[in-house]
Amino acid sequence: MKKDNKPTSKKIQDLEKDMKCPIDHTMTTNDGVKINDDNNSLKAGERGPSLLEDFIHREKMSHFDRERIPERVVHARGSAAHGIFELYESLEEYTKAGFLTDTSRKTPVFVRFSTVAGFRGSPDLARDIRGFSVKFYTEEGNYDLIGNNTPVFFIQDGMKFPDLVHSVKPEPDNQIPQAASAHDTFYDFVSHATETLHNHMWAMSDRAIPRSLRMMEGFGIHTFRLVNAEGKSCFVRFHWKPLLGIHGVTWEEAVKINGADSDYHRRDLWDAIEAGHYPEWELGLQIIPEEDEMKFDFDILDATKLIPEEIVPVKIVGKMTLNRNPENFFAETEQAAFHPGRVVPGIDFSDDPLLQSRLFSYHDTQIYRLGGANFNQIPINRPINEVHNNQRDGQFQTQIHKGKSSYFPNSLAGGCPHLAKMAEGGFTSVPAPVAAHKVRARSESFSDHYSQPALLFRSLQPWEQNHMVNAYSFELGKCTQQHIQERMLFQINKINEDLASKVAKNLGLKVPNSIDMPINQAIGADADGSDQPGDVKVYLEKSPALSMTHIKSDRIDARMIAVLAADGFNMKDYQSMKDHLESKNAMVKLIAPHGGTIKCDEGMEHKVDAALMTTESVLYDALFIPGGKSIDALMKEAKVFKFIDESYKYCKAIAVTDNAEDLLKNSQAKDYKEDKFIFIDGEPSDFSAAIAKHRNWDREEKAKMISV
Ligand code: HDE
């Protein structure tokens, strides 16, 4: 048994190693000139003005003046990690892509998660869609699979993207609100552009306030193509399934977490990887034979539609493990450039008009954001295989291209670089036929905007539906314009009347029978403000895969467990719980009335991870309080009761031993004895099983009157 819980050795040794400056690391200017004073600028006399000739000062300052690059216009706030992708079985029947056919490969990946609307410094727990971008460094070149944590997108045609983004970003006159969709301009747009209603409903679900980036599904959204060595193609949709399950927090917690730790998701991902509890996702494919393209009740080229997993099952084909944190945020996470047009042989595009528009935007924005045409040479963006072509020069060219030839065909370079032969896996596009008149139009097959959000709402658990009612009510409640609120209610009513009436009640409004929608502003075919009910088709009664509960996991990797203790706590109870939780890869944090150390009943000193005043219960997944003499001291701490009441209110697992039950008796968790997620002198394994289930949502209704 360890006498204390000081951080172990390896980390400290690593830190100490880092702190020792290798002998040859003398400070220099960017031109390599050694510097012997980095504290004082060159002056005319000790009290005199700085001199312009001071090239060391000038260089330092002018470099600093240019340290920022433009932030991404969307997805500005992000966190990333390195990892590997391993394939379970060869998919050569469908594709010739090496990383999807060779099971012996460990393909390196770099993954960036992001929020969409907030600026770079915005808080992590904003209600928002999360980006999920994966760069595969394959032997045949880089492949980017850029997805979101929702299976559909807001719009059908890229032409509307700037409008969508302008509407959700802070309003242009006062730049309010930051990282929030709950404002007039967004709902003005959403209520007009009814194609947005489906993804908007996903944004109103708890998926938009994830517990952790490690606990989110990922979706490539668009239909792509896979192409095999014979040139035969099929359609595909990509999925990432998290092995830790899909979990969210409640909106009330999200608001508190943003205040307690606005880097909550970034820290969680970083800490889990540092602790060696590597997040994992399985890659899943929905494969649709070409001949089935038109067989669905919706158009598979429409990015606002999902293909229910009950109709086309997700085939699990491999696993991605994130096992290394970046060394430098700017160099890697900030400079990473993802692009849906970055594909390798074996993967190709469909005619989805939204996808086609993205193929232009990403490269275009990166040339601007990363300062020129050579951003592929930045280490994080470089492929692992060699690059040879006749592209030359440009800003920040780092290659020294040799020889006279920079054109093709040539004889001066012996015809090099030569063209790839088909047998060498050169990229060839699927020769899909396109014969059409040029039109500015939307396909009639894209016109149903209500059936899939209706399916989503029907498929959720009652607690998920309740959270959604609250989310719509909060968001619309923040709008100041009644006509916008009413236009939204009108649209929601076409999806689900019960949802609309509950939200209307919370807003103190009535669901209108008709709305004023100038015909030249309506985008959806059914958005003209007529009083026709929405044309909701029921091609599937329910899709259980749409509920967050569909992935079951018994893992609690890097879950944060708060242990409340003070001098005199019961060492035996503490140690057996800690050992069990740590054997399950959870992170146990000792929280006490003060920092430094506390003594257990066996007289040993234990390092306190956080003093009560520096931390908040919303940052933890579960609460454990060992009994002992410590309880008298804890009884005098108001924050202890805040911990218990909040853990109870937010439906978390709580375990106590011995006289720690007195704390529960004095808390607001009055009927703790009947709760299946509360353990008095229980088995540590029952406690960890409850943590893996995440929350006891059955408690929520009962606990809602608790004031914290
Ligand atoms: Fe993006 N999107 N997007 N988007 N997107 C960008 O590219 C854009 C769309 C997504 O971690 C930008 O380099 C258009 C769908 C992610 O660096 C920009 C359209 C999906 C990320 C851009 C879409 C996404 C971006 C901003 C409609 C889900 C973060 C900076 C035609 C499949 C990538 C940049 C990262 C980033 C444009 C629609 C996801 C401006 C025009 C659909 C995860 O180019």
TrEMBL record:
State the active site: 75, 148
What's a GO biological-process term for it? Answer: response to oxidative stress
Q: Where is the Catalase core domain positioned along the sequence?
A: 28-416
Going by the entry's taxonomy, the superkingdom of the source organism is recorded as Bacteria
Write down a Pfam family by its short name.
Catalase_C
Q: Which residues bind heme?
A: 72, 112, 161, 358, 362, 369
Q: Where is this cross-link: 3'-histidyl-3-tyrosine (His-Tyr)?
A: 339-362
GO cellular component labels:
cytosol
Any keyword Oxidoreductase? yes
Enumerate the catalysed reactions. 2 H2O2 = O2 + 2 H2O
| EC number assigned by the record | 1.11.1.6
Keywords attached to this Swiss-Prot or TrEMBL record, sorted alphabetically, are: Heme, Hydrogen peroxide, Iron, Metal-binding, Oxidoreductase, Peroxidase
Q: Which cofactor does it need?
A: heme
Q: Has the keyword Oxidoreductase been applied to this entry?
A: yes
* A GO MF term: heme binding
Task: Give the UniProt family note.
Answer: Belongs to the catalase family. HPII subfamily.
**Which protein, by its recorded name, is this?**
Catalase
Q: Which organism is it from?
A: Profundicola chukchiensis
